[in-house]
Amino acid sequence: MFSLKEIRKTALISLWFVFLTFPIMVIKVDPIERIVRWRWDNALYVGLGIFFLRLFIEFLKEKNSIRQAAKTTEEKESLSKIHIIIANPKQRNILVGVLLCAASVFPFIFDTYQTNIMITALMYVVLGLGLNIVVGMAGLLDLGFVAFYAVGAYSYALLNYHFGLGFWAVLPIGGGLAAMAGILLGFPVLRLRGDYLAIVTLGFGEIIRLVLENWNEFSMGPSGISNIPRPGLFGLEMSLNGSILYLYYMMILFMIFTIFVVNRLQDSRLGRAWIALREDEIACQAMGIDKRKTKLVAFSLGAFWAGIVGVIFAAKTTFINPASFTFLESAIILSIVVLGGMGSIVGVIIGAFILILLPEYLRAFSEYRMLAFGAILVAMMVFRPQGLFSTIRRTYTFEKDK
Amino acid sequence: MDYFIELLFSGLTRGSIYALIALGYTMVYGIIGLINFAHGEIYMIGAFTSFIVATVLSIYGFPLLAIVVIAGVAAAIWSSAYGYTIEKIAYKPLRHAPRLSPLISAIGMSIFLQNYVLLAQTSDFLPFPELIPDFDFMEPVAHIVGSSDLVILITTTIVMLILTFVIKFTRIGKAMRATAQDRTMAMLVGINVNNIISATFIIGSALAAIGGLLIASHIGQINFYIGFIAGIKAFTAAVLGGIGSIPGAVLGSLILGLTESFATGYVSSDYEDVFAFSLLVLILIFKPSGLLGKAETQKV
């Protein structure tokens, strides 16, 4: 299957990685006790791991190229199964119905712990869909998305603390404040090109976090705000389990609402303007699209969802501090969008479930979570830039009159 | 007055460390137009490698000078190796991809490397061995300028001079400048562009490793997260000076170092990082081409 030359090359590459990882993987020093530990077994694992990984990648590449060669005759692009189902309204309705049933009985089959994890996953679905507007549709790489999430969470915590406002009153306010923050950030950075924009948003995210951490009088600093009330239902007293159940159904409804809105947006005039903007700014302006307005709307709409999820997050955990809003959080949301496929709604939903639920259930590997996120970002860009479930571009075929 | 001079020197020291890292950003950007987000992690790996090597050697009782030299060389070698490998894995396959793809890949690489060091080593702050002794002749001014400040300033100056020489007069430096100006044309006159890009990554990484060694022994502790903040700040410096321009990176770094030093000295030390980020946001908004950079015109 593999030629000798190929295997020799693979062996050399794995030797290179053994050398590369030698100081950090093999040697471990304790500077206080002054002990050196040599972990030679790690070198072996790295060598073997890289050897088989590369063989596997080469194998996949070969298989792919054979398939590509076979496919040249038929022009049609292969669509994943999900797309075929969605394209067919009857099958789609069945799928949605099954999923809805599964979602509504979920808390009764599984315990509170599982329901809680599910709520988190649903929150990330909405966050991912929000970021998808900015990154996937409008093509503006936003690395400070977590800042808007923080604005939402802190607006609930602070408004509740100072003025005693309830969850439902703050929900739109939090979203609105985050959207305003989005516009405030959007205005000055409109002129910037893609990669500069990414860095400025990253800087903005960090500034918000650092201010929250240091401005003790305003945000109570690193110790955070605790005793944030859970969402209420017409003043009904609820047990802990009851409120989790309530939050779960609220989140399901909210996710459906988000999917509905984003889906409608995608095919709207605005959504098509975003996609045009992503593909070619100059051509897009030449077609008479107001670049400023379109970009600002993308920023503020994305931020709006983040703000609302921020409010829900504060209500769910009843405690927030700046440590929840680091750059890594932005990176996780970005991984969701990239893994699922930028611009693809189905992809983002599945991506969020994969990235949030998998580490929860593979507890043994949970410390490798962030390592995997980093690797996913690189691997997706190199091997499958369109994501797991890429969007289908709307195409119109010209049919001749018979 | 003493306080002012103290702040001035600490600013220059900071600035020259930023410059060592910023040069890597600016050189890579100049040649392939990519913000190498993982560059801060290269610096962190340099600091970690020198930490490991220096501690091992000091446990086995090597003399101080040998420790400094071996740790420095080891840090430079391994950082360059990482820089080279990262380019091959994460950036080379994406050379013709849309602009954002390599940036996302670089962010992924940065997260990966951080967690790799976190898992393979530790998440605690580790005490870095004192590699720069307190010189006797510095005794009278020690309360204003530390010995390590002096060593850092001298070392970075020497490194900068060598780098300038390499870029201005050697074959590889000329090839680098040619590639930066026009990659296709450079290929046509027989420059192996892939090798030049690799060389740029190697040189930039080695510089970052030296910076890592110097700052770690100056501050006295390291952990896996130091690369993120240092990377962003060095990037700020590179943008301030005009990304792609080598003298610009040095100038920008010195300005950033001095600003930070004076701002933390006279205003407030709580917001140390906020100053740098705000400066970054302000420059990018008002003068994205930087102090010494060329404004880019977009062709259709």
Structure report:
The complex is a heterodimer of chains A (402) and B (300). Chain A folds into two domains: 4-71, no CATH class; 110-383, Orthogonal Bundle (ABC transporter involved in vitamin B12 uptake, BtuC), CATH 1.10.3470. Chain A is 73% helix and 2% strand. Chain A contains 16 helices and two strands. Chain A has helices at 4-26, 40-71, 81-87, 89-109, 112-137, 145-163, 167-189, 194-214, 216-219, 240-267, 269-279, 281-286, 291-317, 327-340, 345-361, 369-383; strands at 27-30, 35-38. In chain A, helix 11 (269-279) packs across helix 13. Chain A starts with a helix and ends in a 19-residue tail after the last helix. The mean pLDDT of chain A is 83. The longest helix of chain B has 31 residues, at 2-32. In chain B, helix 9 (226-241) packs parallel to helix 11. Chain B is mostly helical and 300 residues long. Chain B contains eleven helices and two strands; from the N terminus they run H-H-H-H-E-H-H-H-H-E-H-H-H. Chain B has helices at residues 2-32, 39-59, 64-91, 100-120, 147-169, 171-181, 183-188, 193-219, 226-241, 246-266, 272-286; strands spanning 126-127, 221-222. Chain B has one domain: ABC transporter involved in vitamin B12 uptake, BtuC (Orthogonal Bundle), CATH 1.10.3470. Classes of the chains: A mainly alpha (402), B mainly alpha (300).
Key words describing this protein structure:
heterodimer; A: 402 residues; mainly alpha; ABC transporter involved in vitamin B12 uptake, BtuC; 2 domains; two-stranded antiparallel sheet; 16 helices; 2 strands; 73% helix; B: 300 residues; globular
Brief characterization of the structure:
Chain A has helices spanning 4-26, 40-71, 81-87, 89-109, 112-137, 145-163, 167-189, 194-214, 216-219, 240-267, 269-279, 281-286, 291-317, 327-340, 345-361, 369-383, and strands at 27-30, 35-38. By secondary structure, chain A is mostly helical.
